[in-house]
Structures are given as structure tokens and as C-alpha cells.
Amino acid sequence: MGIAAPQVARMTLQPVIAQKTASNFGIAESAAVVFAAQYEGGEKQPVATDVCTPTDLGNRSWQVTCEEGEGQFFATVTRAFRLKPENAEGYTNPTRQFAFETPPNYSHIECLPNDPWGVMWYNDHLKAGNLDACIPAPAWSEARYLESNPDDWLYDLSDHGYGRHPDY
After folding, report:
1. What's the mean pLDDT when you consider all of the chain?
2. SS3 string of 124-160?
3. Residue 103 and residue 67 in one domain
4. Are β-strands 52-58 and 61-68 bridged in parallel, bridged antiparallel, or unpaired?
5. What residues are paired with 76 via a beta bridge?
6. How many folded domains does the chain comprise?
7. DSSP-assigned beta bridge partners for residue 65
8. What is the rounded distance in angstroms from the CA atom of residue 132 to the CA atom of residue 38?
9. Could you tell me if residue 40 is inside a domain?
10. Burial 147-156 (b: 16+ CB within 10 A, else e)
11. Measured in whole angstroms, how far is the alpha carbon of residue 125 from the centre of its chain?
12. Is the pTM for the entire model greater than 0.70?
């Protein structure tokens, strides 16, 4: 029994250690979420606190790392956020560059909610069935089109049967 005592003692402390680590993680997580929310979409550059350190990622994108605890109880959390766009038009994509090419034709099928542009899987699936690309979520209706942010578009919808977005 004397040989097993250290291992038994360690096993009895594990829940206490896990609880303290989880508590510190919760504090760091809360600090990171509050910090990111405070600056998200704003114009002011973030300022470091005693718990959180912001890092400029370029293009008005930032990440914040918040830390809590010491030693084996140390916890760190990182969250990302963006500041308000800074250019004359108020958009971050004034040169109209997009991640994907605009499909040449669309079918009558709407893109799925988990692939709203069809670029992850759905359009390839439709192509295999001899159908054209699905209709992206911002183009389902005029209201959705006008409410959508062209900076978030994965490809250009402006001159492709949907008219021009009023901001471009």
C-alpha cells in the first residue's frame, strides 16, 4: 500500500487541477470575447490590457490573445476580429477581386445553407449531374441581394443576370 500512495494522492488531486485549469480557461475566454466585441467593426485600434494582447494581422484584421493563471493552471485563448473598412467607398474590396470565378450559367436550384455559394462541394455535385451552378444565397431574392455585403461575396454577381449591386 505504501508504494501506491503517491499515485492515489495524484489521482485524488486531478479533479481539483482540472477544475482550476477550466476556471482559468473560462476567464481567458471571457476576456478574449469581450475584447474582440469591444473593437469588432469599430474604427479605433485595439489597446493591450494586463490580460489581453492584440496583434495586427494586416488589412484591418486583428487577433487578441488573452492569458490567465500560472504554471500548470495557465490558460491562453486567441480570437480574431476586424475593424471597420477604411477606404473612400467604405469597402475592403474596391478592386473587385474575388476568391472564385463566376459560374458561366446558373440552374434553377438554390445553393444549400451549409454551402451558400456552392463552391465547397455543391456545384461540383450538380455538374456531375449535368446541371449548372446553384443560385447563391444573396441572389435568392432582390431583398437578399440588396441586403448582402459585396465584400462577403465569393464571386461577382454584379453583371451576371442579377443587375449591379447599388454600392458598385
Report:
1. 81
2. HHHHHCCCCEEECHHHCCHHHHHHCCHHHCCCCCCCC
3. no
4. antiparallel
5. 67
6. 2
7. 53, 78
8. 43
9. yes
10. ebebeebbbb
11. 26
12. no
